[in-house]
Amino acid sequence: MALMNENYLKLPGSYLFSEIARRISEFKKENPDADIIRMGIGDVTRPLVPAVIKAMHQAVDEMSQAATFRGYGPEQGYEFLARKIIENDFTPRGIPVDIDEVFVSDGAKSDTANFQELFGLNNILAVTDPVYPVYVDSNVMAGRTGSVNAKGQFENIVYLSCTEENGMKPSLPQTKADMIYLCYPNNPTGMTLSKEELKKWVAYARDNKAIILYDAAYEAFIREEGVPHSIFEIEGAREVAVEFRSFSKTAGFTGTRCAYTVVPKDVKVFDSQGNAHSLNKMWLRRQTTKFNGASYPVQAAAAAVFSEEGKKQIQETIHYYMENAAIIRAGLESAGYKVFGGVNAPYIWFKTPLPSWDFFDKLMKEAHVIGTPGAGFGASGEGYFRLTAFNTRENTEQAIERMKTKMIF
Ligand code: MLT
Q1: pLDDT more than 90, % of the chain
Q2: Spatial strand order in the sheet of 102-105
Q3: Under CATH, which architecture does the 54-306 domain have?
Q4: Most exposed of 87, 158, 284, 337 (fewest Cβ within 10 Å)?
């Protein structure tokens, strides 16, 4: 008899975005003509930019010729891409990163979910609440958490509540935490931390021999000066942090799949005897065993994101989405909602007059607009709602118009 991994029994019935997709498809069955505008999952709508497409075509052509064909590539990614990443994302900010500290992958979702494997099951994790559900669910699957309470919160997780009262900024853990997940600019609240605020987290991690798992998937959307783009802008972070980055939202790769993780060689974890071990070596060991690298055409396409025309073209797309964000923010504010985010992130988070799943249903049924209920991101997300700026200009304007006219309370 094959026994199951019983940790799966602790999880909510379905993944947040699968549950949303299920509700939409049920609604569509009964209302096939409804013109639904999707601002739920953070999925992009603008096509890949011409520089990226050109590089991808070229790479595909190379694969068709014996002389330029490539089989397995390095599991941690091609050096040509890692070099471009360092030269463009880190060197200009004065952040030293070595070539063997960059690990290219097929997505930040898989990297953030897989990375926990390198840690013992007795670690306590800290997450912000609300939080991107992947950090929590992947740790539940691994067996790092205990039982779940009525609020859907797990034993062995320290939840750092982010609400209107604290301006959506988490306080340092009051009880010990070993693995700290931070995501800035934040998904789902769209808020950022200043350098001063981030320094406190690095100091906490250093004092407690904790590791910060820093998700910077949305850094390209930062518009304001002075907001940190990388945790490695903070002195001392190289010893206590790893950083996840993604081409998904930055360059429209949600369907193409490419991301990378920076694991400095200075970050150490400890065995039960107190001996230090390199997380970089462990991640290399893990990736070379379980992953065969992102495909060559995809990595060639990702490298083109850093060409002069590629950079210009993706900035135009990001600007387009951030104009949508401004439209959503202004529209919601004028409709009387209390709004957060949307200034340095493609997510807009606002307070709802109804419990968040009820607001979801009403918005879908009456305005035919899809968003994400705050409760899906954690107990402190109840009473809030998230919209994304990734739809088209027309749909964004239309959705806000419908919210103003159809969501009357
Ligand atoms: C989100 O909507 O939170 C994200 O798109 C999900 C993801 O990136 O996996």
Answers
A1: 97
A2: 102-105, 259-262, 241-246, 211-215, 179-183, 125-129, 157-161
A3: 3-Layer(aba) Sandwich (3.40)
A4: 87
